[in-house]
Amino acid sequence: MTLAWQHYPFADAFDELLSPGGEARASAGRALAYLRRLGDADIDARREAASRAMQVMGITFTVYDSAEERGIDRVWPFDIIPRIIAASEWRRTEAGLKQRVQALNLFIADIYDRQQIIKDGVFPAEVLAQSANFRPICVGIKPRYGVWAHICGSDLVRDSTAPMYVLEDNLRVPSGVSYMLENRLVMKRVFPELFEDNPIWPVDSYPSQLFETLAALSPRPADYPNIVVLSPGIYNSAYFEHSYLAQQMGVELVTGRDLVVEDDVVYMKTISGRRRIDVIYRRIDDMFLDPGVFNPQSQIGVRGLMKAWALNNVAIANAPGAGVADDKVVYAYVPAMIRYYLDQEPILENVPTYLCMEPTQRDHVLKNLDTMVVKPANESGGYGMMVGPAASKQVRSEFAALIKDNPRNYIAQPTLKLSTVPTLCDGNIEPRHVDLRPFILSAQDQYVTPGGLTRVALRKGSLVVNSSQGGGSKDTWILDTEAN
Amino acid sequence: MLLSSLAESVYWFGRYMERTESTARLILVNDNLLLDIPPHCNPGWAPLLQITGSKDDFYKHYETSCERDVIRYLVLDSENNPGAMLASIDHARENMRTTRALFPKPIWEVINALHDYVKEHGYTALSPGQRYRFLRQVIDYCHLLTGKLAASMSHDQIFAFSQMGFNLERADMTSRVIDVRAQNLLHAQDEDLRPFDDLLWKSILDSLAAWQMYRRHAHIRINAVQVLHFLLQDRQFPRAINHCLLQLEQSLYSLAVNDTPRHALLEAQKLVRTVNIPGIVDASLHHFIDDLQLQFMAIHAEISARYFDAQDEPAELAERVIAAESSDGTAPATQLAEDADV
Lengths: 484, 342
Known about the structure:
The complex is a heterodimer of chains A (484) and B (342). With 484 residues, chain A is α+β, with helices and mostly antiparallel strands. In chain A, 31% of the residues lie in helices and 24% in strands. Chain A has a domain at 353-414: Dna Ligase, domain 1 (2-Layer Sandwich). Chain A has helices at residues 29-37, 40-57, 87-111, 116-119, 125-129, 177-190, 192-197, 206-215, 239-249, 286-289, 305-310, 328-332, 334-342, 359-367, 393-405; strands spanning 60-65, 70-75, 78-86, 151-157, 165-170, 227-230, 252-254, 259-262, 265-270, 273-276, 279-282, 315-317, 349-350, 354-355, 372-376, 386-387, 410-414, 420-425, 428-437, 439-442, 446-448, 453-457, 471-479. Chain B has 17 helices and no strands. Chain B has one domain (4-340). The N and C termini of chain B lie far apart (41 Å). In chain B, 73% of the residues lie in helices and 0% in strands. At the A-B interface, strand 9 and strand 10 of A face helix 1, helix 15 and helix 16 of B.
C-alpha cells in the first residue's frame, strides 16, 4: 500500500489542509511535509500506537446495548492526521465566539428578567411562548455576573472558502471537551517530533480554567469552594467525560443520591458526615435536576435543588433555564441579539437559516426540501433531522408533513458542503467532512479553548459527525504561522 | 474525603465476592460429603437452602430439592434467586463499575474475567463430572482477586470498606454453616448417622476450609466442643468468627469516626468470646447463633447509618473524633479478646 498524497481524491468541498492544486496550505506546510516523508509502515505503526494509547487510557464513550441491558464502553475512533487552523484566523474566531456568548448570556438574563428585547420588537414573543426550554420558574432569578451559560460549546463549520459559520450553540450540557484533551495527549505521544517543529497552541489548561470559572460562581466566595460534577451515572454516554473532568479538576464526581438538600442548603453525603456544596457543574438536563419541580419521575436529580439555587445558596452551571437560548429558532436571532445588546456587528456569521414558522420562509423550505437540511428546534445529537439531498422522496414528504404540522419546531438550512480534512481510511488518504466544537467558558472573564474538538464523519460522503452516528475525531492545531 | 455512595459500593463489593466464594465452597463440600453417606440417611441438598436462608423462596420456584435444581438455584438462577452466585458476581461487578477509579486496574479485569467465566461455564456446575473443576476455578478467581487487593492496593479507607464487607459476610456465613450443620448433627435422632458423626463434623470444617488448620491447632480428635470452639473463638483462623470480628475491628480503627459501629462490634465480640461452649452444644446452639446473627445485623446497620447515610454536620463529627482520640487512643482495644481466648 502506498499513501497516495499526490492522488488525493478531493471531495467537492473546501479542504482544510490542501489547496485544490494539491499543495499544502500555508499553516499545514510543515506538518504535511513531515507526514509525506514517513513511510507507510511508519504511518501504520503510529496509527496503531494511537489506537493502543486510546485503549490504555480508557478513552471511551458508552453506547447502550439493549441485548445486554447495559452500557458498553466503546473507544471513540481517532484519526492521527491533525486538523490545522492558522492562528491569525483563530484570533478572529475566538473574538467572535466571545462576542456571541456574551450576547447569548445577556439575552437569557433579559428573558428571565424584563424581556426588553421582546418589548423592543427585536425578538418575537411567540418564539418564546413556544420554547421547550424556557423555564418560567427561573424568572426573576439573578445568577452571579448575569451569566447563565457558563460552559458553551458552539459548533463551527466551513462551507467553501468563506470564514467559519456558527452552526449551533450548545448551552445545555455540551460534551466532548475531554476528547479534545485526550486527543492532544495521544498526539504528543505518537508524534512528539511534530510538536517540536510546530508552534502549536496548548489546550491543557482547560480543566484549570473550568475550575476557576466554577469557583468564581461560589455563593461563599470567602471560603475555598466545594465543587462537584453532577452526573446521571455510569450508563450515561458521556460518563467518561464526567469522571475525567472531575479527576482533572480534583473535585468529586457525584450522582443525585450523593446530594441532599436541607434548609435550602445542598450537602454531599460522605463517610464523615455531610459536606456543604457551593457549586454544581451539572451534566444532567434541566428536567431531571429536581423531581420536586420538574420531572417527578427523575431518579437522578436532587429534591429541593432548585430552591437552594434560587436562594443563591448554591451555584449551578449551566444555570437551569439557560437552554432557552439553545434552540435552533432562537439561534436565527443571535446576530440580531449581538446588534441589540452589544451594538456591534457579529464577527461570526450564522448559517443562513429559514424559520418554518414564517409563512414565506416555510414556503421556500417546502419547495426546496431536496437541497436543504431540516432540523427540529430542540433536538441534539443529530437526531430527528433530514439531510435533503440524501433523503428519499418518502422521507422528504414525511418531513413536509411534520413541518406543516408544527412549523415552530423546524428550521431549515441550505445543505453545506462541509469542509474536509485528509483522513486515514483503510490505508488510503481520503477527504472526510469535519466540524469544530470550541468550548467557551464565562464567569467574570471569558475563556475560549484554542481550537476545540474536531469531529469527523468517517463514512465516505457523510455529513453527520456525531459520536452516536459513526463519527470520529481529530486533534485540532492552532498554529502560529507568523512564527514559522 | 470519601463519598458515602462509593464507600457503600465498595463494602457491598466485598460482601458479594465473599458470598460467591462461600457458595462455591458449600456446594463443593456437600457434593463430597454425600458420596460418603449411605443413601437411606442422606441429608441431600436441602441443608444448603437452609444455610443460605432461601428454603421458602426455593420452593416457590421448584418442586423438590433435588441436586440439579438446588445447584441451578444456587449458582445460575439469578432471575429467581437474588443470592445466586451469578447474581452476586453481577452485583459485585456493578459495584466495581461505579468505583473502578478507586481500585488498581487489574482488579476490574479479574472481576470481568470471573463474570465471563461463570456466564460461559456456569452450566457445568450441574454436571457431577465437571462440577469440581468449575467451582475450584471460581474459588481461585476469588482468591486471585483478594490477593490482588491485598498486594496492589493501598490499605486505605477504601480498602477498609472492602475488608469490612468481606469479613462481615464471612462471619455471617460461618455462623450459618455451624447452625444448619450442627442442628443436623446434634439433633440427629437417627442412630444410623452416629457412625458418621466424625464425617459430618469434618464436613463443617471442610465447608470453611478449616480442616487442616483445625488439626494443626486443636491437636485433638474431632468433637463438637472443640470444633465449635475453633470456629467461633479461634483468633487466627481466617474463617473463625472471632478472627473475622478482629479484622473488622482493625478496619474500623482505620476510619476517623467509628463510635457507633464499634459499640455494635464490641457487643458481638463479647458474645462470641464469652460463650460457654459445652453449655450450648446440646440445646441452645441455635439460639446462640440467632443472637449472634442479630449482632451481625446490628453491626451492618451501624456501619450503614454511620458511613452510608451519615446525618451529622462535619463540625459535630469533629467533636466526636477528638473525643474518640482522647478517650481510647488509636490502637485497637483488644484487651477484651484476651479473657475469652482459652
